[in-house]
Amino acid sequence: MRSPFPLMNVSAGLLVLGLLTAGLTLPSPAVADDVIGRFSNDWTGNGLQVQAIEDPKVKGITCHLVDFDRSLIDRLSKGNWFEDPSNASIACRQTGAVTVGDIDLSQKGEEVFSERKSLIFKSIAIRRIYDRPNDTLVYVVYSRQVKDASAKTSISTVPLFSANATWTKGKPAAK
C-alpha cells in the first residue's frame, strides 16, 4: 500500500539513513582505556570527556585533556551530524619517574596527540615544546580548523628542574 504522505516516507528514510551513517562516520572517541571520566553538562546530553594521555616520548608525564562530546539531540537540532566543537583544555603533570626520549628540541616542537572532531577539516592536537632556558616541557592543545582558524588553545607546563629527569640522549645544553 502506498502512503498518502510520500514526503514523510522520504524524510523518515533520510532520517534513518542519517542515523545509520552517523553511527559509522562520526569521529571515533578516544580509546576506552584513555577516557577516565565522562559527564553530561546540560539537559540535551551534551557532555564533557576527560582523557589521560601519556606523552609517547617522555615517560612519567601524563596530560589530562577535557573536550566536548555532542549528544544525538544536539546533532539533530543543529543539523550538523559530523562534528564536535573543538573546545578543549589541558593539564599536564609528572606522574612517575621522568625519562625524556628523543624529542624535537626546535621551537615548533612536535605533536604528541591528535583527535578528529569532524569528518575532514577539524581536529584537536597536543604539541610539546621544550623550553630550554627554563628546563620546562610546554604542552599546548589547539584546534585545527580551516573555516574559523585555530584560535582555541590551552596550555600546561611541566618543569623538569626538580623532576630528576633522565635524558636518553643526554640533556641538551642551555642556550
TrEMBL record:
<feature type="signal peptide">
    <location>
        <begin position="1"/>
        <end position="32"/>
    </location>
</feature>
<dbReference type="GO" id="GO:0005829">
    <property type="term" value="C:cytosol"/>
</dbReference>
<dbReference type="Pfam" id="PF05981">
    <property type="entry name" value="CreA"/>
</dbReference>
<dbReference type="InterPro" id="IPR010292">
    <property type="entry name" value="Uncharacterised_CreA"/>
</dbReference>
<keyword id="KW-0732">Signal</keyword>
<protein>
    <submittedName>
        <fullName>CREA protein</fullName>
    </submittedName>
</protein>
